[in-house]
């Protein structure tokens, strides 16, 4: 099938479960494309001379090329091209905010023809690759003697491990949790990313010779110095897990919980883990009036999880309007379909209740100010415009900050920026400690999974360069060369 068929092929997304059905379970809400559907949607690509979609993708995926191969009925070749630039294409195809990245940059979208459904085709190719056995364990062309220790089994760590194992290095991944995957497993709900999709990737790495050391807290169970002695290079890919907290009166109540604690508990229940009712009942939204504070994708994960847990009602409080919301518009639309109520231009002013329970949230109504020179609108209070929202459970989804890594790892030479992220050399992933690298959110701050994948892959390239050049050159190499020349 030819491309440039956008004039006769209308945009179609994969089938989506209706709201009533999908809120009764945690299954993914979108179906996969059939081969015919994928081919027809891929054929809409205009094959632009300057592919804005590729420019809008953090991984610089060769999108027009694998769309063309999909349209021509050559899915295996399309997948091979897709996987050449991305180690987790079927995962990014599920959870990337394509409306803000590749699809939002699509020339068809900009010219009024509606974008190509790039993410759905990417997911289709990745799923088909697993189903047809195109994805096999990594078999390096050469086995190398050096080993790399990766701290963090999230997307950046997984991506780096894939690339480094392909190059033949011995790789060990250390993680504080009992399962590999990081936030892909315990942060993102299953209705966006079913856990078997992550497991087949982490299982492939294990089958490729990558070793996992789980339930391992670096700094307590094993020292950072021990890891440095054991491995030729270290990659820190821990992500950022310290949630920003409310700072309004009453925020210390037990009825106010952190988003990550809430989502982790829900995902643990999905795995069948037993829950301690006395200690963890406050993390269950069943039968409760829930208020989530925040406007990003984590906030959307929380409100949609609460709906599925059987909350009495769910509201989302955000200080700006919908047009200025940082989360994916697709996720906001899904939340609205599922019954979530949004309180736009509202900011928390006080938590109502006592130390043990909450009864509500006092909110301050806001308005947008005149745009500044960059077009950014500020917000200001509307005098006297306050109201109370009833609540039994308030969830803080205000973003994440880095933990104090130099203290956790007992490595004072590990320098950090003023934001607490690990400092690396400009344009590189080397930290200020020799042989130690860092990538993902712990370097760039809380960001998207696709950026973690990109940085994990790039960090692997930096580590390879370090191990094959700098590490093998003796400290007195220049002196030896000068002596040789003199003789």
TrEMBL record:
Pfam families: Fer4_20, Pyr_redox_2
Single GO MF annotation: metal ion binding
Gene3D superfamilies tied to this protein: Alpha-helical ferredoxin, FAD/NAD(P)-binding domain, NAD(P)-binding Rossmann-like Domain
UniProt keyword Iron-sulfur, yes or no: yes
Top-level lineage group: Bacteria
Domain Dihydroprymidine dehydrogenase residue range list: 23-133
FAD/NAD(P)-binding domain span: 148-456
Database matches in InterPro entries: DPD_II (IPR028261), FAD/NAD-bd_sf (IPR036188), FAD/NAD-binding_dom (IPR023753), GltD-like (IPR006006), Helical_ferredxn (IPR009051)
Keywords for the protein's UniProt record, in alphabetical order: 4Fe-4S, Iron, Iron-sulfur, Metal-binding, Oxidoreductase
The UniProt record lists the keyword Cell inner membrane: no
Entry protein name: Glutamate synthase (NADPH/NADH) small chain
Organism: Asticcacaulis taihuensis
Lineage, highest ranks first: Bacteria, Pseudomonadati, Pseudomonadota, Alphaproteobacteria, Caulobacterales
């Amino acid at each position: 099938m030819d491309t440039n068929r956008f004039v006769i092929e209308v945009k179609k997304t994969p089938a989506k479960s209706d709201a009533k059905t999908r809120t009764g379970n945690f299954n993914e809400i979108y179906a996969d494309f059939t081969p015919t559907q994928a081919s027809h949607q891929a054929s809409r690509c205009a094959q632009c001379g300057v592919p804005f979609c590729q420019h809008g993708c953090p991984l610089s995926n060769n999108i027009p090329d694998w769309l063309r191969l999909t349209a021509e009925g050559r899915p295996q070749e399309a997948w091979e091209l897709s996987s050449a630039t991305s180690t987790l294409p079927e995962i990014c195809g599920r959870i990337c905010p394509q409306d803000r990245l590749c699809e939002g940059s699509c020339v068809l979208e900009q010219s009024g023809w509606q974008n190509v459904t790039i993410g759905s085709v990417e997911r289709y190719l990745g799923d088909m690759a697993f189903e047809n056995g195109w994805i096999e364990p990594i078999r390096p062309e050469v086995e190398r003697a050096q080993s790399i220790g990766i701290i963090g089994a999230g997307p950046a760590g997984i991506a780096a491990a894939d690339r480094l194992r392909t190059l033949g290095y011995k790789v060990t991944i250390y993680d504080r949790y009992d399962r590999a995957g990081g936030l892909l497993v315990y942060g993102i709900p299953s209705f966006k990313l079913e856990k078997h999709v992550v497991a087949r990737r982490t299982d492939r790495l294990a089958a490729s010779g990558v070793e996992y050391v789980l339930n391992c807290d670096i700094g307590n169970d094993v020292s950072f110095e021990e890891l440095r002695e054991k491995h030729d290079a270290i990659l820190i890919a821990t992500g950022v897990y310290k949630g920003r907290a409310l700072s309004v009166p009453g925020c210390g109540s037990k009825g106010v919980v952190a988003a990550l604690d809430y989502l982790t508990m829900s995902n643990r229940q999905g795995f069948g883990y037993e829950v301690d009712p006395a200690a963890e009942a406050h993390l269950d939204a069943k039968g409760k009036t829930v208020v989530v504070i925040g406007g990003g994708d984590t906030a959307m994960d929380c409100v949609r999880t609460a709906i599925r847990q059987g909350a009495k009602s769910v509201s989302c409080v955000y200080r700006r309007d919908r047009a200025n919301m940082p989360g994916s518009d697709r996720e906001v639309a899904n939340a609205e379909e599922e019954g979530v109520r949004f309180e736009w231009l509202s900011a928390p002013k006080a938590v109502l209740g006592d130390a043990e329970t909450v009864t509500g949230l006092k909110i301050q109504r806001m308005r947008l100010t005149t745009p500044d020179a960059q077009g950014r609108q500020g917000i200001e209070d509307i005098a006297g415009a306050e109201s109370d929202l009833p609540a039994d459970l308030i969830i803080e989804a205000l973003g994440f900050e880095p933990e104090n890594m130099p203290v956790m790892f007992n490595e004072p030479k590990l320098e950090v920026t003023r934001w607490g992220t690990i400092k690396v050399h400009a344009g590189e992933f080397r930290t200020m400690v020799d042989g130690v690298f860092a990538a993902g959110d712990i370097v760039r701050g809380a960001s998207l999974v696709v950026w973690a994948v990109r940085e994990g892959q790039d960090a692997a390239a930096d580590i390879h360069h370090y191990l094959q050049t700098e590490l093998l050159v003796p400290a007195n190499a220049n002196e030896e060369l000068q002596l040789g020349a003199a003789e």
